[in-house]
Amino acid sequence: MLRLVYFPSPGRAEAIRIALSLSGVDWEDVSIDGASFQAMKEAGQLPWGMVPVLQTPDGAIAESSAILRYAGRMAGLVPEDPYQCAKADEFIDGMEPLSKALDSTFGIPDVDERIRLRKEVFGPRGKGSRNLLLLERKVTESETGWAAGTDDMSIADLKLFTGLFGLFSGNYDGIDASVVSGYPGLIDYHGKVSTDPRILAHYADVGDGDIRWTFLPGAFEVR
User: Fold this and answer.
1) Quick one: how many helices (H) and strands (E) in the chain?
2) Domains, the chain, ranges and CATH?
3) Which pLDDT score is estimated for 101?
4) Helix (H, G, I), strand (E, B) or coil at 61
5) How do beta strands 53-56 and 27-31 pair?
């Protein structure tokens, strides 16, 4: 059995969770807290000193994108065509600036200051807003509607869908759903992915009160 170790929040593990669920293999979603994380780190159980980590019969795999590629291949979400496979990888690598957009705001104890800085990140001149514009352009230019222009949904879509829309769940002070509502191309993309039968089935038990509400159909249209 595979064991995915991460905190209970979606974060960098959510795309992996979807891929593992769609793969049909036996796996366990192992939630840890800060103390457990520190204990694993001190025990040398984290190859690069961080999570997520996927524990396999052959050993541990670290780094979220590497794990996603591993799980995505088992789920049939890594294109067999070399070019399309490379485009999916390209998109995943290109998303890194968005993944780090809020990094400078973590660890700031003053709530008001933290909120101010985050609003700047997604303000008119913020780097977060620039990334949203770029991603919107990418998905609207895709001839297939999938993030990397692949023939079917790929790991790039899992990464974009969870990594982007998870930012606006209300889990981060100062950032809410109203931010992304100003990007109609991204809202259309959300509709495409959230209503895909595979994604619908994965989130069938998620309600509006769950932190994963942003992955449900119509999430940003009704708020």
Assistant:
1) 10, 4
2) 2-74 (3.40.30.10), 82-215 (1.20.1050.10)
3) 83
4) strand
5) unpaired
